[in-house]
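Quick illustration for those who missed Monday's session on complexes.
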Amino acid sequence: MRRAFIAGNWKMNLTQSTATELTNGLVAKLDDNTSVDVAICPSFGFLSGVAAELASSHISLGAQNLYPAEAGAYTGELNAEMLLDLGCEYVILGHSERRHLPDIAESNGFINLKMKSAIAAGLKPILCVGELLDEREAGQTTAVVEEQLANSLADITTEQVDVVTIAYEPVWAIGTGKVATPDQAEAAHANIREWLRIRFNDLVADTTRIQYGGSVKPENARELLSQPNIDGALVGGAALSVDSFMGIIENA
Ligand code: 13P
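Prediction with 1,3-dihydroxyacetonephosphate bound:
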């Protein structure tokens, strides 16, 4: 049985004080006996402050990116060791905003380097995959997602993939209020699980957690999360308020 995993991706939002307020609100409300794994992923600048607030809680900390290199001349970047030092357990990699914002335009090859670097350092990556609207309409969803998986996970071994969570985030559903139907999401998740079975083995396929992301709200969380292959959610907008994020966790 896979434990539900709900992660909040705060993206480039909040300030130091609102980040602290949100963190404290979540810590106060999250039941210590929850059966759900919960993580929050603030901007780099808020990591250490949020880590301090999370110290005695059951909420894990994640980052939204890393640079895959040893310390050195990489102005503006943070590597996996720095994120661990700041208290991170998780790191979101391959987010569609980083793949598709034209000035960022991350490739699967670069994401693969980040995956290897995160795993080697002991961070748990949340690898995001998902198709654009045009690609869905052209019937390419499975092909696009499988290509992202194959290239982002290139050379990753069966032992290493143990720490990886996959997040299926159809790009047309992110921040648009247009959520994938439970059937659309379940079909994509089932395909990802079968891909993992072929690329790795039955154990990897049956134990890897696959989150859904894209306009998840308390109102749609229960139906999405009750699908057999949806093990959690990667939440953007609704993770920025205590009530809506808790509402999603309570539905998991
Ligand atoms: P929204 O929940 O705002 O659609 O964002 C989803 C997302 O991109 C999480 O990584």
